[in-house]
UniProtKB/TrEMBL annotation:
One of its GO terms (biological process) is positive regulation of myeloid progenitor cell differentiation. This is Biogenesis of lysosomal organelles complex-1, subunit 2. The lineage of its organism: Eukaryota, Metazoa, Chordata, Craniata, Vertebrata. Belongs to the BLOC1S2 family. Residues 25-72 are annotated as: Disordered. InterPro entries: BLOC1_su2. The gene is BLOC1S2. One of its GO terms (cellular component) is gamma-tubulin complex. One of its GO terms (molecular function) is gamma-tubulin binding. Pfam families: BLOC1_2 (PF10046). Residues 62-72 have a biased composition (Acidic residues).
Length: 179
């Protein structure tokens, strides 16, 4: 994630060279001649490293001793660290708060869905109760239909028996007529 605004400025200050390093450059530059700014100090430092030394070999360059930059102020570094830590922790807390808001919204939506499902199930239960009541009110008629069906079935059996008996009688009558 890219930092913007104050965060970018805070991160940029970490990567910059401390001001004490520029003072060391100015000290080196003043030894070789007067310098007017940081660019002049850098130019005079490179010019000083190109100058031949004073030893008897005229073409040999001499190395200068490396100067360590002065320690930056510890209070400034601590303050800077605490400010950046505060920014980081604020970001973490903001992200956590947003996560909780999202969860809260999801819980509300889920609750609404469950309430809708509850209403639907109550309607289904009510309709089922109505259907059961209607079925119970139709039950005597269904029993009558079953009795009629049994009676029709017994009448059908009686009709088959009567038909069979009439065929026997017809066969006997034809047999008697032939004699």
């Amino acid at each position: 994630m890219a930092a913007t605004g104050d965060d970018a400025a805070a991160m940029d200050s970490i990567s910059r060279a401390p001001a004490a390093h520029l003072a060391a450059l100015n000290t080196t530059a003043s030894a070789s001649g007067p310098a007017e700014g940081p660019e002049d100090a850098a130019e005079s430092l490179t010019a000083a490293s190109r100058r031949p030394g004073t030893n008897s070999d005229g073409g040999v360059e001499t190395a200068e001793e490396a100067v360590e930059p002065a320690e930056p102020d510890i209070n400034e570094l601590c303050t800077d660290m605490f400010e950046k830590m505060a920014i980081f922790l604020q970001g973490e807390l903001t992200a956590t708060c947003e996560d909780y808001r999202l969860l809260e919204n999801m819980n509300k939506l889920t609750s609404l869905k469950y309430m809708e499902m509850k209403d639907i199930s109550i309607n289904i239960s009510r309709n089922l109760q109505d259907l059961n009541n209607k079925y119970a009110s139709l039950q005597p008629y269904l029993d009558q239909i079953n009795q009629i069906e049994e009676q029709v079935s017994s009448l059908e059996q009686a009709a088959y028996k009567l038909d069979a008996y009439s065929k026997k009688l017809e066969a006997r009558f034809k047999k008697l007529e032939k004699r």
